[in-house]
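Q: How would the structure tokens look for this protein?
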Amino acid sequence: MRIVLVGPPGAGKGTQAQYLAKNLSIPHISTGDLFRANISQGTPLGKQAQEYMNAGRLVPDEVTIAMAEDRLAQSDTEHGFLLDGFPRNIGQAEALDRYLSDRGLALDAVLDLEVPEDEVVQRIAGRRICRKDSSHVFHVSNLPEQGVCDKCGGELYQRDDDQEETVRKRLEVYHSETEPIIDYYKAQDLVVTISALGKVDEVTQRAMAALGRSAAA
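A: Here is the predicted structure in token form.
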């Protein structure tokens, strides 16, 4: 299957992408991973992206699109892929359509993870990260008793990006730039919308059912 995953910040796209990709036996391709890989490997595209980032400027669509197309051309995508974070706007969606069409391919579905805005703010603004290991993530509703990471003892803190005001600004960007791709894909009858509320495995099962597949046990 060839799938695009969309949803607002805090919808759990990264987590769901990993589970869905595993269940569907297709590669999970995230924009963040593409940028990190190209920059760390010093590719021409990575160098271009780094220059823009060092200057505090947004990486232009053409660089992001080129990275995505380069990744989609790799052999492991032959039987499908799950895109997470790309396309991010109408221009990128049109570029993806052209890329696939030129190869006689097309998307099978666009999975839209739906979460109420207040829930998004509560999820992200309540998040606390371990300073020693950023993979250790907690929420204010369920912090360890001592107020420190119960895995390594590191201090827990709130990232600047997780401040409520910043979260609401991120949502505004999502509504203005990314949300329009949902209507774009609805016109192609590709959008499958599911609620992203509930436990991770419940959302995964919901998504698999919406895609017409059974989740692995």
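Residues 2-210 form a domain with the Rossmann fold fold (CATH 3.40.50.300).

The chain has one domain: 2-210.

Upvote if useful.
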